Structures are given as structure tokens and as C-alpha cells.
Amino acid sequence: MGLYVSGRLISPGRAHAPALVLDEPLSLWGGLDPATGRVIEPRHPQHGELVTGRVLLMPAARGSSSSASVLAEAARVGTAPAGIVLAEPDLILAIGAAVADELYGIQVPIAVVTPEVLAEVRTGEPVDIGPEGLTAD
Amino acid sequence: MRLIVRAAEVLEADRLIPITGAHVDSCLYHGQATLDFVYRLVDGGATVRVATTLNVGSVDLLHPELWRGDPDLASRGRRLMDQYRVLGCRPTFTCAPYQLADARPVFGEQVAWGESNAIAFANSVLGARTNRYGDFMDVAAAITGRVPHAGLHRTAERRARLVIRVGDDVPSRLLDEDSLYPVLGIVVGRLAGGRVVAVDGLPHGIGEDRLKALGAAAASSGSVALFHVVGSTPEAPTLTDALHGAAPEEEAVVSMDDLRQARAELGGERGGPIAGVSLGTPHASAAELSEVADLLAGRHAADGVEMLVSTARATLGEVEETGVADRLREAGAELLVDTCSYISPILRAPYGPVMTDSGKWAYYAPANIGAQVVFGSRRECVESAVAGHVVRDPTWGST
Question: Does the pLDDT value for residue A3 go beyond 70?
Fold first, then answer.
């Protein structure tokens, strides 16, 4: 019996990948190295984790307005997360994903769900992002 | 325009509104994607339709010899900066466009600004209206002249949700110290996250340079885009005004302990020898440059201490006229424009220890360039540069 969620997509696309749950918001600029796909912010609890091929879940994006560029660059290089799930909409990440789609035809779906739903998902669990929102088993 | 419409969908805005100015941060190189994007715009024949200033890029175009990194990276950074000029943006290359007399939006003006400290300053200190526009979106707004009618463009969204009071245990002499403001900003950003915040309990009529330092720090540790300072910022003559007459959703008090802890985290209690001093983040105003020259008072930075002061090329032009630039150079200071020392390979000894008066520099430099940071007041920075090791004054009552 899957947990079905009617979250909304702020960036279109589909993803099916294991979850990586971040305990704190991450600024992709200064926080994600697009060359390696790893979390590089030393203070972050998930420092060193690989986001590539995983669905990144965090309560909110944080900090720099340059995070859009970092997401687009990670998509170009092939190190971007398979998808992103947030508890509040983030314009900066949505625009980064839109530019990756415009320039390279690469979609990074971004879903927005309630904080309660976000708290249900554990790292490693397979999750789906599709037109209907987030689905997790 | 597709990006602007996407943004309106994300923000659930009912319509687009016109803007009269933009500040574009997309000119800082973050990989091939940033170049691919600008070439797409240039090849499509796009130009900006509102007055648009540019944020810092990777390279000091006036002093390219200061670059110490990979020449290929410098050339990519320079190409990106050049292409934004082709789009019709002004080559201001500063993170503090609000310090340029002909680029300051007026109270109530609708604009689209990028660069977190500039966004915070435009909203809070000038009373202009912008959301936090990230890379790509800022230039898309400048080209279309439109933004979604949402967030801080709307009067109701500018109401303070959180009230932060400066505690009674913070001594009044500290309230008149420059170094309080970046430290307080770090605490404010952490408490506020992305919420509109009102800070109460500070002296009235605080100057722009202190508000700049507070906002830049708050936009680093948090996502603060609008902060009201009661008695100092234009939408907060009183706390009631900042709250639009409503009750705050949350209240917090900043104690002396909170401030001490934040200052210590920035490196405010470190001592010992230093390899460099970096001032001017955000870009120094003419008044700040003049103050640094006065503090140096004809003395020279110690051997082995690199002293960098970042400012806008326009401000450098101003202080060349007044002789302040020469006084700084004679004291051994290097004047950096168009970029900043924590985003590009500029410092001779980036690992430091590097001393700074900036909460923002202290916050980002450890991860960005690997620097060990010592935080201090502007006066402490200058005295330490001259001595070659950290010199503290008794303001904070420690070390």
C-alpha cells in the first residue's frame, strides 16, 4: 500500500529513484558541486552525500540566488538529482530546472508537498514523482 | 517570456506587472550552462527593456593581473560578463548598485533584483519592491520588463511576521559599534529564515553602511529579502507600521549571549598571526573607503599581510578624484573592483588566516575558498593589518 500524495509540481517531469532526505535546507550554490554531484557544504549534516540519481527531499531551499545556475549546470553535466521534493515552493530552483529544460531538454521534476508528508519519507526508500505529485512506498 | 510565465505559475500570481529597473546577478560564471544561456539570449537578438545594472562577475576587468587561478576559467568568466553588456546591461559590476546615485530605485518602485544583499537593501532600506530573483530570472525580467504580481511586490506581503528585539543586556556602547551589525544580521537571518522581520530596540536613524552590513549577513545565514528596522527603514517609522497594525506571528529576543556566540562562529574570538585582510563585502562605499584610509593614518600594512579592499569601479573612480585611493595604495592596500575576494582566486594566501569586517565574507569564505576567517571590526582589521597579527579592542569585552 503506497503513500499517495497530491502534491503539486512546480517543475514538470518524471522521476523514480531512491530518496535522499536532507535534515537541513541546502543552498545549491556553495552546497552542491556540479562536477561531482556531492554535497560540499561542510556544516551540512549530509556533507559528502551524492545527490545524482536520487530524489532530493528537503524542507526548503536556502540562501543564494545563484542556486538556479548550479542546478542547470548539474543537469548539463549529468550530476543533478533525479528530482526534488520541497515543503514550500522555491522559485529559484524552479527557474534553474526550466532553464535546463530549455537549453538541454533535461527535466528535473520538483514537487511541493506538506511538511507532514515530507517527514514520512526515509533515505533509501524508492519514491516516484509524476504528474500526480509524489508517491512513496 | 516562458520563464516569466513559469515563475507566475510557481508563485500562483494572477497577473504580470511592469518593472522600471533590474539588477542582474547572472553575469557571474557558474559553469558552461551560464554561458549557454546568455548565448541563447544574444543569438535570439534579445535586449533589456529597462535600466539594468550588473552584479559582480568572476574577473576584475580593470585589474586582470589580480587573478591567480586557471586562465581558462578567467576567460570564461570574462566572456560571460561581456555578453551581458551585449544585452544592453550597464557594466556596473557591483553587488552594491544601491550605492550608485543613478541606479537607486525610489520608494515604492517595482524592480527585479538579483544578489541577496542587494535585494535586502532595495526592499528594506530604499523601500523599493523586489522578490528574490535568482540567476536567469533576473535577466528574463529585464528583457520582458515584467514580473509576476506576487510576494514582496504586493503591499500586504511586506508586513513583518516576526519581531526580533535587541535584549536589554546588550550594552548601549555596542549599539554604536560597526561590528554589531553584521553579527546581529547573522542572528536575524537564522531566526527569520525567509520571513519578513522587524528588528526593534536599536537606535533610530541607523546609517546605510550599517544597514547594508546587517542585511548582507541576514541574507547569508537566512533568505531574508525584507527586514524592517524600527526608526531607521522607511516602512517602519514605528513597530506598528512594520506590522501593518497586526499582531506579530512570533517574537524573539536577541541576548548578548546570542550575539557573542554568533560572533565566535564567524571567527570573532580568534587571535594570532594573519596572512590577509579583506574589506568591502558588500562593495565598500566611498565613506567606508575614506574611513579605512583615515584608520590607516599613513601607516603601512605589515610585511606578509595582503590587504584587499573591494569596491565598485564607479566608487573607485570617485575616490581616485578625492585622493583616498592613493592613500589606500600607499598604505599597501590593493583595490579590487568588478568581483569579490571570496568568489574568485584573488588572495595570495586564501587559506589565511584572513581577517574581515564582513559577516557575509566570514559566512561564505570558509566553504568557497577554504579560508580560515578571523572576524573583527573595521578598526580591528586595520590595526591587525598594520601589526601582522590580530589586534582586538575591548568593545566586545573578550580576547
Answer: no
Give chain A positions within 8 Å (CB) of B119: 65
Q: Is the bond into B282 cis (omega within 30 degrees of 0)?
A: yes
List chain A residues with CB under 8 Å of B140: 95
Identify the bridge partners of residue A39 per DSSP, sorted by sequence position.
A32
B207 contacts: CB under 8 Å, gap ≥ 6: none
Q: What is the pLDDT of residues B163-213, one digit of tens each?
A: 999 999 999 999 999 999 999 999 999 999 889 999 999 999 999 999 999
**Among A63, A69, A98, beta carbon nearest to B3:** A98
A76 contacts B220? CB cut-off 8 A: no
Residue of B389, B379, B387 whose CA lies nearest to B176: B379
Distances from the Cα of B261 to the Cαs of B185, B383, B396, in angstroms? Answer: 13, 23, 12
Q: Is ipTM strictly over 0.90?
A: yes
Chain A CB contacts of B28 below 8 Å: 66, 69
A3/A134 Cα distance (integer angstroms)? 9
Burial of B156 (0-12, 13-18, 19+ CB in 10 A): exposed
Give dist(CA B188, CA B193) in Å, integer: 8
Cell numbers describing residue B37: 544561456
Query: Chain A residue with minimal CA distance to B365?
Result: A30
Q: State the Cα–Cα distance between residues B92 and B56, nearest whole angstrom.
A: 8
Helix runs in B44-170, H state only? 71-86, 116-124, 137-144
Q: Is the pLDDT of residue B3 over 50?
A: yes
- Give the pTM: 0.94
Burial class (CB in 10 A: 0-12, 13-18, 19+), B370: exposed
Q: Does B132 touch chain A (CB under 8 A)?
A: yes
Å between B370 CA and nearest CA of chain A? 10
Q: State the catalytic residues of A.
A: 64
Cell of B111: 524592480
Q: Parallel, antiparallel, or unpaired: how do β-strands A83-86 and A55-58 relate?
A: parallel
Cell of B353: 588566516
Q: Do A62 and B223 touch (CB under 8 A)?
A: yes
Handedness of CA B93, B97, B103, B109 (dihedral sign): positive
- For B113, the 3-state DSSP assignment is strand
**Is residue A82's pLDDT more than 80?**
yes
Give the chain B residue whose CA is nearest to the CA of A35.
B31
Q: How many helices (H) does chain B have, and how many strands (E)? A: 15, 14
Measured between alpha carbons, how far is B94 from B86 in angstroms, rounded to an integer? 18
Q: Are strands A15-21 and A126-130 parallel, antiparallel or unpaired?
A: antiparallel
